[in-house]
Amino acid sequence: MSSAGVWIRLKAFTLDYILVFLYLCFILLVTTVLVPGLQNYFTGPLGIAQLTGFLLVTLPISLYFAIGDSALFNGTFGKRKMRIQAVDRDERPIGLLRSIFRIFLKFLPWELSHFLVYRLVHLGEGEFPLYLMLIGGLIYLLIFAYILSAIFSKENRSLYDRLSGTKVLQI
To answer: Which of 20, 34, 120, 164 has the most CB atoms in a 10 Å sphere around its CB?
Structure first.
């Protein structure tokens, strides 16, 4: 088996994101038409709003990727369609805990972005705190590190793959 290139991984992620988009459309339908009262949780106090977003969006999507990439399914829909698989250093399918850790690292910039946006919305006309600037910088640093490490490493391993002891191979 050979390492999966950046483009094939991007294609797989795009296929998965079609499913994510459909899920987000479902959540939009539920929160605006079927149970419009849920909107209050998204717009309420900061902690409740962020927790609601996490429970309805981040957690289910993260679980889709973590469970899908684990040995339970040997790849998400997109990875299976593109015939690639996340494996450990010994090229065995990854267990659920390793997959959860990998997805935690992979989606860390996404969740930090949510954290930042919720705070910016509630910030109003006040002074822009230094910690929010640092979080914004960290988001971009992680995104660039993930992309550049996948492009320029021999095995097309991103930083989150290296940290989680995984790699993505063509099968």
So the answer is: 164
